[in-house]
C-alpha cells in the first residue's frame, strides 16, 4: 500500500506500445474475427474523437445527459427502418450482442409470468450467448438439430419442439458458425401460432444484409416484415464499423420491451431506473456510433456491404477448389466456414495462416457438425482477398504435409474421465502438465502453436471442454505483481 504507481505520459505510451506488441491488428483486414474494419480512415478518426469527448458522460440518467437520449433514439430509429420495424416499435442501445440477447430472453421470460418453468427453442447453431442467457436467467434451452447439409434450422423440427412452457423461439440471420440465414418465415409462423415470441439474432448480419437487398433479391426474409418476429438484435460495432461496444435490441412494440425495463424506489437513494442490464455506462461508445453511422451514411454502407460480400463469394469459390478444403455451407452474408478432409485439420491450418500474418478462427466440432475454419470478411479485407486465397492454399498444403495434429491417447483418456462437476486444482494441474501447458510452479504456459491443444479439446465432450477452458481462463486472469 502507498506505492507510487504514477507514470509520465511518455512512460505510459511506451508501456502501452509494449503491451500491444503481441495483440492482433485491429486494422488492415488481417484479423478475420473479433474486429471489423471499414478501411475508411475518416470514419475511424471521427469515432475515436467522439469516443474520447463523450467518455465521461453517463447513460444512467437520460435527463442529465439528454444528448445521449437523443442519439440513442436516433440510432434505434435508423436501425428500425433498416429491418422493417412496424409502427409503434421500441428499442434500446446495449453494450453488445450478448447483452441484447440476454435482454431479449429476459423480456420473453418475464412477459409470461404464467409459465413457471420457462423454455426457449433454438437451433444448435444459435449463438452461445443464448446458452449464457439460459444459465443466468434459468430458462431451459431446448436444442434442435440443424440440417447437416445446409446448416440451417429445420422449421418442422423447431415447431415440434414448441410446447406450453415455451416462451421464446430463436432464429439467426445469419448464424455465426456457418454464415447462413435460418428460414425465419416458417419458424416465426409456428411461434406465432403457439402464442410465443420469436427473436431473430441478426447481431452480425443486421447492418450488412439490408444493404445487400438490391443486389440479392433472393435473400431469405428475416426482418420484422416476417409476421411473427417480435424482437431482433443487431450490432453496430460489427458491420456499422463503429467502436466497440454498441448493439441495438428492437421489439415490435413498447409493450414487448417493457418486461426488461427495471425500476426500484425501495431504498433511500435515487430511484434506480434502467432500460438495459447496465446502470452507469459511458456515453462514449453510443456517441461514437452515432457519429460513425452519420459519417458513413446509407450509400457508403451499401458500397461497403457489397465490397465485403463480393470478397466473401470470391474467396468461397477459390477455397472450395483448394485440395483438402470445402465449404461447410454456401455463405449468405460475409462469413465463411470451411471444412477439411482427413489429410489435415482446421487447427493446423489456423496456425499456418497466423504464421502468414492472418488470424482465422478455428471452430470445434459439435455433434454431427464438423470442425471448421471461420473467416469474417469486412470491407477492408477485400483488397487483400487474392492474397488471403493464396496464403490459404499455401497454409492448407503445409497442413496436409504435416498431417493432423497429434493428440496423445492417454491425454484424451484422462480428460474424458474427468467429472466436470468435481474437477479440482490438482487434477487440472496434472492435465495441463500432461498437455505441456504447465510450468514448474504449475502456472499456465500457452504454446506458440495452438493446434495440438485445440485438437485435444476438439476430441473431448463439450461439457469437459467447457470446464477445462474455464480452468485455463481462471489461471490466465490472475493478479500480477
From TrEMBL:
The keyword NADP does not apply. GO terms for biological process: carboxylic acid metabolic process. The keyword Lyase applies. The lineage of its organism: Bacteria, Bacillati, Actinomycetota, Actinomycetes, Micrococcales. InterPro entries: GrpII_AminoAcid_Decarb, PyrdxlP-dep_de-COase, PyrdxlP-dep_Trfase, PyrdxlP-dep_Trfase_major, PyrdxlP-dep_Trfase_small. Its cofactor is pyridoxal 5'-phosphate. This is Glutamate/tyrosine decarboxylase-like PLP-dependent enzyme. Belongs to the group II decarboxylase family. Sphingosine-1-phosphate lyase subfamily. The modification N6-(pyridoxal phosphate)lysine is found at residue 238. Transmembrane segments: none annotated. One of its GO terms (molecular function) is pyridoxal phosphate binding. It comes from Humibacillus xanthopallidus.
Amino acid at each position: 500500500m502507498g506505492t507510487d504507481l504514477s507514470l509520465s505520459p511518455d512512460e505510459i505510451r511506451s508501456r502501452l506500445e509494449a503491451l500491444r506488441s503481441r495483440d492482433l491488428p485491429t486494422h488492415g483486414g488481417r484479423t478475420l474475427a473479433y474486429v471489423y474494419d471499414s478501411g475508411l480512415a475518416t470514419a475511424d478518426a471521427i469515432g475515436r474523437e467522439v469516443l474520447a469527448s463523450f467518455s465521461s458522460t453517463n447513460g444512467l440518467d437520460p435527463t442529465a445527459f439528454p444528448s445521449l437520449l437523443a442519439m440513442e433514439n436516433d440510432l434505434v430509429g435508423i436501425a428500425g427502418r433498416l429491418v422493417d420495424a412496424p409502427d409503434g416499435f421500441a428499442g434500446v442501445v446495449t453494450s453488445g450482442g450478448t447483452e441484447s440477447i440476454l435482454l431479449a430472453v429476459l423480456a420473453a421470460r418475464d412477459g409470461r409470468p404464467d409459465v413457471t418453468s420457462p423454455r426457449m427453442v433454438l437451433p444448435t447453431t444459435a449463438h452461445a450467448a443464448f446458452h449464457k442467457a439460459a444459465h443466468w436467467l434459468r430458462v431451459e434451452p431446448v436444442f434442435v438439430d440443424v440440417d447437416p447439409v445446409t446448416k440451417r434450422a429445420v422449421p418442422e423440427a423447431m415447431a415440434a419442439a414448441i410446447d406450453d412452457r415455451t416462451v421464446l423461439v430463436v432464429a439467426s440471420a445469419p448464424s455465426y458458425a456457418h454464415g447462413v440465414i435460418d428460414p425465419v418465415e416458417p419458424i416465426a409462423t409456428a411461434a406465432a401460432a403457439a402464442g410465443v415470441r420469436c427473436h431473430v439474432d441478426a447481431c452480425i448480419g443486421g447492418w450488412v444484409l439490408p444493404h445487400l437487398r438490391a443486389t440479392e433479391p433472393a435473400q431469405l426474409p428475416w426482418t420484422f416484415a416476417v409476421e411473427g418476429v417480435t424482437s431482433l438484435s443487431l450490432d453496430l460495432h460489427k458491420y456499422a464499423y463503429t467502436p466497440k461496444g454498441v448493439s441495438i435490441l428492437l421489439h415490435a412494440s413498447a409493450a414487448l420491451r417493457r418486461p426488461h425495463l427495471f425500476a426500484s424506489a425501495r431504498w433511500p437513494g435515487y430511484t434506480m431506473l434502467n432500460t438495459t442490464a447496465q446502470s452507469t455506462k459511458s456515453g462514449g461508445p453510443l456517441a461514437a456510433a452515432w457519429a460513425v453511422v452519420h459519417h458513413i451514411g446509407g450509400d457508403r454502407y451499401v458500397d461497403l456491404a457489397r465490397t465485403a460480400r463480393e470478397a466473401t463469394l470470391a474467396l468461397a469459390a477459390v477455397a472450395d477448389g483448394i485440395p483438402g478444403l470445402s465449404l461447410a455451407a454456401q455463405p449468405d452474408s460475409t462469413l465463411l466456414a470451411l471444412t477439411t478432409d482427413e489429410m489435415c485439420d482446421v487447427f493446423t491450418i489456423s496456425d499456418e495462416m497466423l504464421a502468414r500474418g492472418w488470424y482465422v478462427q478455428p471452430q470445434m466440432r459439435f455433434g454431427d457438425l464438423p470442425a471448421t475454419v471461420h473467416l469474417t470478411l469486412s470491407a477492408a479485407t477485400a483488397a487483400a482477398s487474392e492474397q488471403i486465397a493464396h496464403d490459404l492454399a499455401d497454409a492448407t498444403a503445409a497442413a496436409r504435409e504435416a498431417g493432423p495434429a497429434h493428440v496423445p491417447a492417454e491425454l484424451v483418456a484422462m480428460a474424458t474421465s474427468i467429472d466436470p462437476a468435481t474437477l479440482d486444482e490438482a487434477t487440472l494441474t496434472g492435465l495441463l502438465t500432461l498437455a505441456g501447458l504447465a510450468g514448474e510452479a504449475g502456472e499456465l504456459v500457452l504454446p506458440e502453436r495452438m493446434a495440438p491443444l485445440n485438437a485435444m479439446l476438439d476430441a473431448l465432450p463439450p461439457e469437459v471442454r467447457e470446464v477445462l477452458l474455464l480452468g485455463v481462463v481462471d489461471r490466465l486472469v490472475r493478479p500480477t505483481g
